[in-house]
Amino acid sequence: MPTYQADLTTTQAPFVEDAHREGRLFIEQPYELYSEGNHEAWRRLYARMLPRWERYANPAFRKGITNLCLDPQAVPRLEDVNRFLCPLTGFQAKPVSGYVPAFVFFDCLRNREFPTTITIRDAGRLDYLPEPDIFHDVAGHVPMHTDRAFAETLVRFGECAHTAVDLVEGIHDAKRRSHAMTSIVRAMARFFWFTVEFGLMRCAGEVKVYGSGLLSSFGEIQHAVESADVQRYPLQLEWVVNQAFEIDHYQPLLFSVESFDQLYEFVHELEQWVKAGKLNNVAPGEPTVNERDLESFLQRSKRGL
Asked: Can the peptide bond before residue 30 be classed as cis, meaning omega within 30 degrees of 0?
């Protein structure tokens, strides 16, 4: 194994770059490579988010933070995270070297695995990072995976990817098959964005956050709950799957659910819509479905392209 300098900062981590170049998606977490600067970034991120979690996060998330016993002073070891997580819901954080194609990601959820980035943002860029890092993944996502109802919702969402592959098996024309699959992937991405990443929940008359994109953002978590510039509506499936979004600014439109049981029912309905072909022609627009995501689905189909 090559010798690496201690540093796992996002965009400048040779260990991860080598794994990516060699085609190794699933990797180990080389904990000894975290620098003091990496741990300092975690400390600062965690310390400033803690009071915001206490004020804006949903109760399941706050309980999850406690149950995971995350160390506020150091980047977590994923083996320790999993030691606390697995007995609760069967989920585990699975370290990856970079971008996970859509079908692979959803299939991981189906198998109670969450692809987890091991790098952390630079301490000088704490506010915004376009790609996920370990703070977003472990402090934003993973506490939600300790809740049984939410975990079952993720598993069911992963099942939708397999349902989509089964659907396109019945489409004989390659062009129509590709179009339908692109539309379904776009719809699933939008649903994931407005729920798992940016979802709100009404708890005892108050708006709370359960979306991990908000739970890991110091500025946007408050903005999502308090700003008059944000439109907040009860989740409506036909609206969400046709609603475009952009990632490089605070979200002006958010959707809320009443409970994770209700969210599970929405995922069940989403899967029924896949089976019925109701997602084969959703509204165009963002997000763009890239070739890797489309291929990841079509390659699982016996017909392929």
From this structure: no
Q: What gap in Å lies between CA 253 and CA 275, rounded to an integer?
A: 28
Report if residue 9 sits inside a domain.
no
Q: Dump the DSSP string for 230-288.
A: -EEEE--HHHHTT----SSS--SEEEEES-HHHHHHHHHHHHHHHHHTTTTT----SSP
Separation CA 84–CA 271 (nearest Å): 31
What is the pTM assigned to this prediction? Answer: 0.94
Domain coverage including residue 236: 14-298
Q: Supply φ then ψ for residue 175, to 5 degrees.
A: -65, -45
> Could you give the CA distance from residue 77 to residue 268 in angstroms, rounded to a whole number?
34
Amino acid at 99: Y
pLDDT in tens, the chain (305 residues): 678 888 999 988 999 999 989 999 999 999 999 999 999 999 999 999 999 999 999 999 999 999 999 999 999 999 999 999 999 999 999 999 999 999 999 999 999 999 999 999 988 888 767 789 999 999 999 999 999 999 999 999 999 999 999 998 888 888 999 999 999 999 999 999 999 999 999 988 899 999 999 999 999 999 999 999 999 999 999 999 999 998 889 999 999 999 999 999 999 999 999 999 999 999 999 999 999 999 999 888 654 43
- Residue 198's nearest CA partner among 146, 152, 250 is 250
Q: Total structural domains in the chain?
A: 1
Residue 302's nearest CA partner among 171, 183, 176, 111 is 171
Place of tokens 């939410």: 150
Q: What is the CATH number of the domain that holds 173?
A: 1.10.800.10
In this structure, the number of other CB atoms found within 10 A of the CB of residue 241 comes to: 22
